[in-house]
């Protein structure tokens, strides 16, 4: 015979002060847990959304990122004629890109941050379909003009439309702001690759990567076979979306590991808080428990009833923690991308599945905090407790 659930609700209500302590402890732990995982999800989502399954990224063979890569102009000419590369009205849909780093002050602190500056071909918007100009216009090839991502526009000083900023040995005018759909490109500055490399005293016949539009997503294998077997080339060919997913691995692992450790430490405290609450409940309700046992409720029913009470407290704590941290969803922050050492803006990404994980985590803490007090309650000597009535 099971103890009615109404008994558990009335019990929690009667001991609301100690229950609140446990609820707050669990809510804080769940909040940290969900917040850290949402950071990792947001960082990964930002990088992965930078890539497209319709594009191939070509870098030097063995290079781990664009920053450690190098592709010469002769190689670019071979790549643009390779099978699998789509063609537009003005020729191959391919952009050979120079990737550099520039120190630009943050608006919030005034301190310099590493901003990724990318030299792109004039047809880049045909290749990266998710990028569109939202203010101003595209830069003109051969002129010292740049366009900036929407996050770069709001995060860094001097990158407002119509402003002039020094990059390398040249002064550049901001002529446009682009929206890259929340991808990593939103934190970048784009301009003419030949002028950018010249401004940083680099040869203008040398690029860090080549991004090519494929005739179809299935054409990647054809392009890869053609380029990797060409004795004139030493390149690696990757689907663009896979490249950016791999770039996110190190940082997401770090955030997840750190967040898991912090949440684990806090969970220990929350479990002890639940233990204290439930043990106190057992101590205060010895006669109640003995009376229920005398009325025919068995030990398993008492254990189940106390576990339900612990789960009720932890469920409320889990919901509270999720509701508090939900306000962070979409809030933009920034960090260093360890693969490129550039500053990258990204948003907290709190998904329904993450909220479910948070509540489940709370319930686990509830079980751990309620099991042993529940067993103790079931083992209370009935005769001794009844003599105290």
From TrEMBL:
Residues 20-228 form the MacB-like periplasmic core domain. The keyword Transmembrane applies. The keyword Transit peptide does not apply. The chain crosses the membrane at residues 20-40, 254-275, 301-326, 346-372. Keywords: Cell membrane, Membrane, Transmembrane, Transmembrane helix. One of its GO terms (cellular component) is plasma membrane. Its main location: membrane. It is a multi-pass membrane protein. This is ABC transporter permease. It comes from Candidatus Acidiferrum panamense. The lineage of its organism: Bacteria, Pseudomonadati, Acidobacteriota, Terriglobia, Candidatus Acidiferrales.
């Amino acid at each position: 015979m099971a103890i009615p659930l109404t008994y558990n609700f009335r019990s929690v209500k009667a001991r609301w002060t100690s229950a609140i302590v446990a609820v707050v402890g669990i809510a804080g732990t769940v909040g940290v847990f969900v917040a850290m995982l949402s950071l990792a999800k947001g960082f990964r989502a930002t990088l992965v959304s930078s890539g497209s399954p319709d594009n191939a990224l070509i870098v030097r063979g063995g290079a781990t990122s664009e920053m450690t890569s190098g592709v010469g102009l002769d190689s670019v000419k071979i790549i643009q004629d390779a099978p699998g590369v789509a063609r537009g009205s003005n020729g191959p849909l391919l952009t050979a890109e120079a990737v550099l780093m520039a120190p630009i002050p943050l608006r919030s602190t005034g301190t310099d941050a590493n901003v990724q500056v990318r030299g792109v071909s004039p047809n880049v918007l045909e290749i990266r379909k998710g990028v569109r100009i939202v203010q101003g216009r595209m830069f003109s090839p051969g002129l010292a003009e740049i366009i900036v991502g929407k996050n770069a526009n709001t995060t860094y000083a001097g990158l407002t439309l119509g402003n002039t900023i020094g990059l390398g040995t040249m002064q550049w005018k901001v002529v446009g702001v682009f929206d890259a759909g929340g991808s990593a490109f939103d934190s970048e500055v784009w301009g003419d690759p030949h002028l950018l490399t010249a401004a940083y005293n680099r040869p203008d016949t040398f690029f860090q990567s080549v991004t090519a539009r494929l005739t179809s997503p299935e054409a990647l294998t054809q392009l890869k076979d053609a380029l990797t077997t060409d004795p004139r080339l030493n390149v690696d060919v990757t689907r663009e979306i896979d490249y950016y997913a791999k770039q996110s691995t190190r940082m997401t692992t770090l955030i997840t590991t750190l967040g898991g450790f912090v949440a684990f430490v806090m969970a220990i405290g929350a479990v002890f808080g639940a233990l204290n609450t439930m043990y106190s409940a057992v101590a205060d309700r010895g006669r109640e428990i003995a009376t229920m046992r005398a009325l025919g409720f068995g030990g398993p029913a008492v254990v189940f009833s106390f576990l339900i009470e612990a789960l009720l407290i932890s469920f409320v704590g889990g919901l509270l923690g999720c509701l508090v941290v939900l306000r962070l969803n979409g809030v933009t922050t920034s960090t260093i991308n360890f693969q490129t050492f550039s500053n990258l803006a990204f948003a907290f990404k709190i998904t329904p599945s993450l909220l479910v994980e948070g509540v489940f985590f709370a319930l686990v803490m509830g079980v751990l905090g309620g099991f042993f007090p529940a067993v103790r309650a079931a083992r209370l000597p009935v005769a001794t407790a009844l003599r105290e009535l």
